[in-house]
Every structure is written in structure tokens, then in C-alpha cells.
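(Deposited chain)
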Amino acid sequence: MMAKNLEATINVTTASESFSVSLPPIAELPFPVKSIGGNESVRQCHGVLYDAALVVPTVLFVLYLVVHAKKNLTKLCNGRSYIMISYYALLWLACVLNLAWCSLQGWQCSAGKEVAWNLLSLFTVAAVLYLEISLMAFLLQESYASGLETLARTFIISGIIVGVDMLLKVIYVFGFGFPLFIDVDSTHRMKWGFWIIHELLLTAVYGFILFVHFSKWREKLPSRPAFYHYVVVMFVVSAVAFFGCVLAGTGAAFGIWLYNLTVICYHSLYLPLLDNAYYSEMKDAGFFDADWE
């Protein structure tokens, strides 16, 4: 930003005469200053290593999808599986949004980009969460129905949960003005309070699945080991994120660092993990054998 030189002139009038005093030029500060009223805060951008940890794995996974796109599209056209077609389209949508989110981290510390950044973050998180929930909704159904019935059930369950989650975030961000997606004030209690509840719910869901697995009701869950490996990973990530949010809510710097670490892992590594788990579990369940072999 170019500095603007301002010259101030003070006019003083007394009973007998008037005179003016010129002050030297004042240079505008090259960085934003926190206002006394607290309406604006200093914005902190993450460093190069943080951005690289997000962008590099995301770009590599998108390149992986591009390289295999022709083969996958051919199989999709030949197989005509509604579930796999929908999953593949959602995976691409989530990957494109996630790549944009990872690449445009500077938006959250750029003046005038607040709305754009909040909208991008909102839709990116919603797309990835939709895939996450759809996998669990598909695998936790008591019986595998036909492809179209399974797709409808999965979409309805995932859509309701993600819709409620998005509505709450819209109210928090655009209604109350809480910086859920912007690292403006690391000690914002309402922000961390929301993420504490969010991560606690995810941790409770994955923890409950693991509890059922070791209980007398374990026969109601999928018996394949890969399913529980996925659940264990998600439980650990959610629990660490929850712990980080609790510490961050108290103002602890380590909690903020820990939460940022889970953000990096989630946005850079989760979609490849989801892609592998989704396809493997559906294939083991007996779907798509004729389509994908």
C-alpha cells in the first residue's frame, strides 16, 4: 500500500489576531492498526510453510484425479452406477473447492475479501463434510438396498445434517459476525465455543461407533477391518481438534497450533483417505464389481 503524506494545518483565532501552524507530513502506517473501539483487529496471515502444507498435497491429489479421469469416466459410463457417479461428481466438487480454499489463504488477511473468504470456506467445509457423512451413512445402513434406494437414503441423511450445520455457521458468520473462518482474533471465545461443540459432536459420533464395535451390538456394524481403521483415524483427528479448540478457547498458543495442525491434516490428507475408504468399502460390500473390474 502506498503511503499517503498528509499535511495538517491548524488555524488558531484569538481575540486580537489569527494565525496558522503547519505540521510536518504524517506517513500512513504500512500495517493495519487495531482500533480503540475494537471494531477492527489485526489480521494474521499464516506463513509459507503452512500454505505449502495445505497446497502441495491437495494439488498432487487433484493431479492424481486428472490422470485417472479418462479411465474413471469410461468405467462410470459403462457401469451406470448411480452411487458411484454421484460420489465421483461430489469428490470432484469437494476437491476443486478445497484446492481453491488452500490456495487462497491470503484472502482472510486482505481487506474487502471477508465475504468471499467466508463463502468459500462455508461451501468447502460443507462439501467435504457431506462426503464424510455420506460414507458413514452408506456403511451404517442395516441392509444394502438397490443402488438408487441407497443413494436416496444417503443423500437425505447427509443433506439434513450438512444443511443444519451450514445454517448454524451462516447465522454465526453473517448474523452475529463471529470470525469462524478468519484468523482475526485467536482469543474470540464465541468462535472457539462453536468449534468446541462441532468437534465434540464428531468425536462423540466416531467414539460411539467404536464403543458399539466392542459391545454386544457389534454385529449391527460392518465387520470389515478397513471400516474401523477409518473410524479410528477420524476419531483421533476429531479428538485432537476438540482438545486444541478447548485450549485455544483459554488463550493457549499451543491449542491454536494444535488446531491448525488438524486443519492441515483434514484439508490436505482427508480427501485421499476418503477416496480410498469410500471405494474400498463399497467394493467389499459387493457394489460395482461388474462396473469397476
